[in-house]
């Protein structure tokens, strides 16, 4: 991961949570423990490698707990830690905000002036 440039807690949080997958993974884990294969099914466009890297990043940050069970094939479960569960209201609020502002975004797109190329 990149080094933190300042001592701002927002910068540190965004370093862990930014990108396409971390918040989606938290969203899918908020309902309980999931296996790696379940998370792949929930996010079909993420590659195996990227999913593993993102889960490892969240685990290192203390947000996700990884539990490997002995046996063949190896079964790995992921769930939120206490720190990860504290993020659930933020994830839910973000989704609520998006839904609440949907009409505003739709109105802005349809009433926005169109640019016409100069001839």
UniProtKB/TrEMBL annotation:
Presence of keyword Transcription regulation: yes
Keywords on record: DNA-binding, Transcription, Transcription regulation
HTH hxlR-type domain mapped to chain residues: 8-106
Domain of life of the source: Bacteria
InterPro entries, alphabetized: HTH_HxlR, WH-like_DNA-bd_sf, WH_DNA-bd_sf
The keyword DNA-binding belongs to this UniProt entry's keyword annotation: yes
A Pfam family assignment: HxlR
GO molecular function, a single term: DNA binding
Coiled coil: none
Protein name, as recorded: Transcriptional regulator, HxlR family
């Amino acid at each position: 991961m990149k080094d933190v440039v300042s001592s701002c807690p927002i910068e540190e949080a965004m370093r862990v949570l930014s990108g396409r997958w971390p918040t989606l993974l938290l969203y899918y884990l908020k309902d309980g423990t999931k296996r790696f294969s379940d998370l792949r099914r929930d996010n079909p466009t993420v590659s195996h490698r990227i999913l593993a890297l993102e889960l490892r990043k969240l685990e290192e940050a203390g947000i996700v707990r990884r539990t490997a069970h002995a046996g063949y094939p190896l079964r790995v479960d992921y769930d939120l830690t206490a720190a990860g569960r504290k993020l659930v209201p933020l994830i839910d609020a973000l989704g609520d905000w998006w839904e609440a502002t949907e009409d505003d975004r739709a109105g802005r797109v349809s009433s926005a002036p169109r640019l016409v190329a100069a001839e």
